[in-house]
Write a sequence for this structure.
């Protein structure tokens, strides 16, 4: 068993005691894990196909149409295949579809009633309705959560790494190094971020990677301030001086003595950084500068809702999802912040 | 041949656009196996002297003006960073004042105590841990396994300071610098720790530079005392000489201000009027000039170190030409 530092243990216990934060963490965590398995939960391809005595798993492997008696080398439309005479007339053939049998990019025009046009209202078939291209809203919310959460987690990770390296260099070496980097940061932070996203998008094409890179290039600045301050403080700490007196090299002092101590305040900051990037991504998608079009995204769905004001479900459900994620994450942040606060005054009800 | 020999050492601090003298003409000799004490008021430069010995002062602050710090005949001021790091912790080890802040709060005792051993002696972790256990037993730590696995915040100050002592002894240094090692602790624990230090010193035959503001404590353990005042060593000599026949007016008033059970209870303790001159405002002549009761014309010049029978003293009262 790893023996935890008593301070860490106390913080963990305090965090667990804060029911609101603890359950928020559980909910967000499970939701993210579930969304990671989205292709199994919501997909236009069946989980299992039984055809002429053989089993096929189309989600995990690509089978051309020829396999199931078609002519083409391309991906079969399994739903059409299921309804086709060839497939159904032989007894014993069957398909098992996922819980939500729609893909995030599938226009479910065929499954709609004859007189209805997308966007269609929530119904038993489409629990949260469909959007203007007949795509299932629930599926898109699920995939959208996966994308925005992954984007934000990767972004926060990069932010912390860059911010820690640069803030650490500034704080530890101080003096001229600190001042010159600080001036560069000031120049960087005065560049308007939105224009930068537009310019980068038109140069390299809009994509997940370009967006991530551009956003990460600016957002580490806040973290670097924190780390810089911590390094400034810890550099003068007695145990650092003591380590020096024992002949420990600069590199070891930074990585073994200063850095682990400096990261503590960053932990309380993480959930709020996550919120920041989720909302920025949604805002960019809403404006149409985020992740390019066919990808599911909450911002883009809310944007659709604005165009189809009569389709209330288009704006309601993604907004609720966005609100819940941000609210729960900020509960987590609140709980973490209080757990790291050495004062015990705050009570939770 | 002395272990440590500081010769005419001058140190300045560079504060905003001006240089301020901090240590002036420091002369200090520590023999092998000797306990040498530096006493003085807060801010007189005791700690600065101790840190300067291995160049631990912040680089942008300290200017090593002139003089020599000879350790085993090597001038430390001329060594580069890497060579100095090899001396720090291995040849010269430190014990600091406050054990609560001088240990890393998020590292286990185990990992901290073996750090210097791993750097200087060998990379063998098992060997280092064995050595650590041996030393911890020696400094009186019980329940070793449990202590090694715990964190600084789980232990008392006395215990942490014992651990710091064990930590300093890991590489068997020839000089141990103890910078007020007991002032953050209770009086009862102070006595225990001082006894422990003396016992270990006798066993290992190392030298100790003991820094303290408590001349009473120092008098009972050291062979030699140097009295510091405002950046200067004003008197050096064998402990008994200093305690019984203090020469410098400052040392005299320092000794009469020690409270003692043998003194007449109705008599007030003497105090030294005035305050210590602050950094950069040292008088041009003798630094004790403004507070001295026996001041005379010559005192606005700089005294050098005059030799008497056993001691060296920086006061014109003992100069040949003034007698």
């Amino acid at each position: 068993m790893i023996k935890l530092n008593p301070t860490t243990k106390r913080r963990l216990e305090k965090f667990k005691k804060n029911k609101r934060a603890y359950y928020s963490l559980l909910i967000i965590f499970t939701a993210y894990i579930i969304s990671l398995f989205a292709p199994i939960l919501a997909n236009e391809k069946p989980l299992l196909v039984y055809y002429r005595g053989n089993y096929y798993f189309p989600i995990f492997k690509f089978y051309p149409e020829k396999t199931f008696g078609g002519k083409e080398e391309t991906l079969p439309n399994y739903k059409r295949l299921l309804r086709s005479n060839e497939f159904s007339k032989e007894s014993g053939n069957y398909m098992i579809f996922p819980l939500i049998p729609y893909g995030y990019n599938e226009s479910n025009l065929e499954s709609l009633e004859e007189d209805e046009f997308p966007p269609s209202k929530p119904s038993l078939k489409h629990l949260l309705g469909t959007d203007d291209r007949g795509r299932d809203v629930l599926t898109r919310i699920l995939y959208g959560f996966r994308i925005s959460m992954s984007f934000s987690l990767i972004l926060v990770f990069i932010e912390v790494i860059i911010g820690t390296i640069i803030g650490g260099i500034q704080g530890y070496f101080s003096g001229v190094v600190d001042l010159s980097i600080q001036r560069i940061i000031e120049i960087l932070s005065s560049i308007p971020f939105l224009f930068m996203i537009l310019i980068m998008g038109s140069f390299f094409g809009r994509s997940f990677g370009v967006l991530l890179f551009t956003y990460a290039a600016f957002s580490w600045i806040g973290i670097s301030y924190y780390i810089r301050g911590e390094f400034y403080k810890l550099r003068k700490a007695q145990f650092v001086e003591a380590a020096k007196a024992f002949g420990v090299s600069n590199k070891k002092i930074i990585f073994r003595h200063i850095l682990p101590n400096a990261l503590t305040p960053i932990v309380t900051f993480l959930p709020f950084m996550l919120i920041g990037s989720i909302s920025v991504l949604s805002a960019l998608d809403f404006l149409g500068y985020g992740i390019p079009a066919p990808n599911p995204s909450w911002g883009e769905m809310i944007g659709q809702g604005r165009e189809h004001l009569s389709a209330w479900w288009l704006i309601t459900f993604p907004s609720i999802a966005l609100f819940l994620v941000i609210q729960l994450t900020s509960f987590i942040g609140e709980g973490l912040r209080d757990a790291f606060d050495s004062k015990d005054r705050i009570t939770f009800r | 041949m002395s272990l440590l020999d500081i010769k005419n050492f001058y140190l300045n601090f560079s504060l905003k656009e001006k240089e301020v003298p901090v240590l002036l003409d420091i002369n200090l000799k520590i023999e092998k196996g000797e306990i040498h004490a530096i006493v003085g008021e807060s801010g007189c430069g005791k700690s600065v002297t101790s840190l300067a010995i291995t160049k631990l002062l912040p680089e942008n602050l300290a200017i090593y003006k002139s003089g020599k710090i000879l350790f085993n005949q090597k001038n430390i001021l001329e060594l580069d960073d890497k060579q100095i790091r090899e001396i720090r912790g291995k040849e010269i080890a430190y014990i600091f004042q406050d054990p609560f802040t001088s240990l890393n709060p998020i590292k286990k005792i185990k990992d901290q105590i073996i750090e210097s051993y791993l750097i200087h002696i060998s990379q063998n972790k098992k060997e280092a841990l064995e050595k650590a256990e041996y030393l911890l037993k020696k400094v009186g730590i019980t329940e070793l396994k449990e202590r090694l696995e715990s964190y600084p915040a789980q232990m008392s100050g006395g215990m942490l300071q014992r651990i710091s002592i064990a930590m300093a002894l890991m590489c068997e240094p020839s000089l141990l610098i103890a910078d007020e090692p007991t002032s953050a602790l209770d009086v009862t624990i102070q006595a225990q720790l001082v006894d422990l230090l003396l016992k270990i010193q006798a066993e290992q035959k190392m030298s100790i530079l003991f820094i303290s503001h408590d001349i009473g404590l120092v008098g009972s353990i050291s062979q030699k005392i140097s009295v510091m005042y405002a950046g200067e060593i004003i008197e050096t000599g064998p402990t008994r000489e200093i305690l019984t026949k203090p020469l410098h007016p400052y040392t005299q008033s320092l000794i009469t201000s020690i409270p003692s059970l043998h003194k007449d209870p109705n008599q007030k303790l003497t105090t030294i009027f005035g305050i210590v001159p602050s950094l950069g405002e040292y008088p041009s002549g003798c630094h004790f000039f403004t507070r001295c009761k026996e001041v005379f014309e010559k005192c606005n010049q700089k005294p050098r170190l005059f030799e008497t029978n056993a001691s060296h003293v920086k006061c014109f009262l003992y100069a040949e030409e003034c007698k």
